[in-house]
Amino acid sequence: MTPDNIRIVLVNTSHPGNIGGVARAMKNMGLQRLYLVEPRDYPSEEAVWRAVSASDVLDAAVVVPTLSEAIEDCQFVVGTSARERRIPWPLLDARQCAERVAVASDREQVAVLFGREDRGLTNDELQLCNLHLNIPTSEAYSSLNLAMAVQIVAYELRMLCASNLPVTEVDQWDAPFASHENMERYYAHLEETLVDVEFLDPTAPRQLMSRLRRLYGRVRLDDMELNILRGILTETQKWVAQARAPKG
């Protein structure tokens, strides 16, 4: 595992004290990279106070206006989710997820996303993820503080830090996995092409693109595969344009 390749991303955090608590939880477990997406109240003295001796994590925190900017260079993205979604996504608990994150971090930039205190991540934000992470809690009281949630995930990662993880097929892959930024370009290109060939009706898209995102997120494309698919889409659009061109 390479902790420097793992970032914790907090989305639209309401309370600055929670940001400080997260910084402390991260430093306890050897994580340093904190990204803040449009926090409602930051910088804040309360965040510094709650961080205690982890002010260096706060000082190095990257504040960005959008989630896409926070994860644009990441190849593996995990989103925390506390509830079932209309379209089920690959879902792991903290321990299982830590194993995937630990292996991926040896070669890739990895992001673990945590949403708003009151409602978590939106469906659109969760669709940007390769898999979803759920922390099982008691049905009698399921509310989990943001810093506590980060602490659980960071702890599971810490437990794997000194482990000798087995070599997997990912370790032997011949090309780097595609970044979030490049995948978003692909999704835009794919949607445009599906509209061109009249497979997708933009006035009634239903859940087609969401399901395709889930498919590709589960498979995970590398850069070479992505270039091949983009090439196929480009040639498809050329043929469509030729077929629709006026004759004679």
Question: What can you see in these coordinates?
Answer:
With 248 residues, the chain is an alpha/beta fold. It has 2 domains: 168 residues, SPOUT methyltransferase, trefoil knot domain (Alpha/beta knot), CATH 3.40.1280; 72 residues, Helicase, Ruva Protein, domain 3 (Orthogonal Bundle), CATH 1.10.8. The protein is 46% helix and 12% strand. It is built from 10 helices and 7 strands. The protein has a 7-stranded parallel beta sheet with strand order 3-2-1-6-4-7-5. β1, α1 and β2 form a beta-alpha-beta unit. The longest helix is centred in the C-terminal third of the chain and has 22 residues.
Which terms summarize this structure?
248 residues, alpha/beta, Alpha/beta knot, Helicase, Ruva Protein, domain 3, 2 domains, seven-stranded parallel sheet, 7 strands, 46% helix, 12% strand, elongated
